[in-house]
Amino acid sequence: MKARYVLVVIVAIRSLKAKTFGFSKYHRKGMAGHKGISRRPLLPSAPEDVLPIAFTHASASNRPFGESASCMKKIGFLSFGHWSPSPQSGTRSASDTLLQSIDLAVEAERIGLDGAYFRVHHFARQLASPFPLLAAIGARTSNIEIGTGVIDMRYENPYYMLEDASSADLISRGRLQLGISRGSPEQVIEGWRHFGYAPAAGESDAEMGRRHAEKFLELLKGEGFAQPNPRPMFPNPPGLLRVEPVSEQLRDRVWWGAGSNATAIWAAKLGMNLQSSTLKDDETGEPFHVQQAKQIRLYRNAWKEYGHNRTPRVSVSRSIFALMNETDHMYFGASGRDGDKVGFIDKTRAVFGRSYAAEPDVLIRQLKEDEAIAEADTLLLTVPNQLGVEYNTHVLESILKHIAPALGWR
């Protein structure tokens, strides 16, 4: 198996435990107290079991304990929205995943979480078309942010996307946080071609994705550009026409998912907020959280240099599990024992950040050492959505109650 494909498996499994098949209130009773589980669900091999020799452990930070400053943070969840026909999966169909995603967002708002974010993947048994889902969540909730992390712009028509995104933002009354990017390694070869897109002559697919993003940002200005028909079906306003609807306030809530320092600086230039996940280019050989913290500082410095008037937002994603009971230990007890991994994606050396899973006192000490979390104002917690709404609510509430206050996030 090629390393780049293996790393994608790690992203899906280790970050989200997405192939961890469990039980939810939709398929069995008794999970309210996490009791009555008589046997361990089918679990995949630990990520290190599928790593090629090219992957190695990155060294730990030598920074003194507790050096990173704590700060108040917005905390949200990030779901890839996996489903599987396995009888032990809590989401056996696309319908299960979509409906449970709505329910989880409702529960997240109830317990005081700040955001409900969703990853977008095509040609996979995962969430793919985010705007109907986000609009439904927006209609069912009142305060929680709704967002993406991220939409692959190689697959997007900026004009149609503007209509969809604006509609979701208006339905939610301005709560959409739109994360976009150039995309990641795919399930198929050049999948964007099947959607009708191809790079221009001399252009790479990544450059095409960034071009689509720039056009989308241009359209968000709400300026007219299309010549009106002199004999329209309905009366037109004066002047050139634009696509409708346009939520012009959305412009300040567009984020770029940056996998390198250079693209983080490019995002700052265009005035986009920054999303940095659990994976980035290995540009210095330092631990992941150290490199990510440096990326965030470079981004903020560039933001100041480009003279933007507002303060940008920065999010990082982490897999964090507080081990509160036997069920938590069963699912994730072994997840937090390893450090970063490094490997190659499309010939680029990349570093993938560790997962955190420990009892609260240990977890608090470990998270104090994460420099990138300290730098960010928003933390997105990846969730194992196939374990169901009730269990994921427990996972999120454990962080809010037992971890966040001790770290100054709440």
Task: Characterize the structure shown.
- With 410 residues, the chain is an alpha/beta fold.
- It has a single domain, classed as Alpha-Beta Barrel (TIM Barrel), CATH 3.20.20.
- Helix content is 33%, strand content 15%.
- It has twelve helices and 15 strands.
- The protein has helices at 3-13, 94-111, 130-140, 158-171, 191-194, 205-219, 261-269, 288-305, 326-332, 360-368, 371-375, 389-403, and strands at 56-57, 74-79, 115-118, 145-148, 151-152, 176-181, 254-257, 273-276, 279-281, 314-318, 320-322, 341-345, 348-352, 356-358, 378-382.
- The strands form three sheets. The chain has an eight-stranded parallel beta barrel, surrounded by six helices.
- Helix 2 runs parallel beside helix 3 and helix 2 runs parallel beside helix 12 (389-403).
- The protein is globular, with a radius of gyration of 21 Å.
- Residues 1-70 have low confidence and may be disordered.
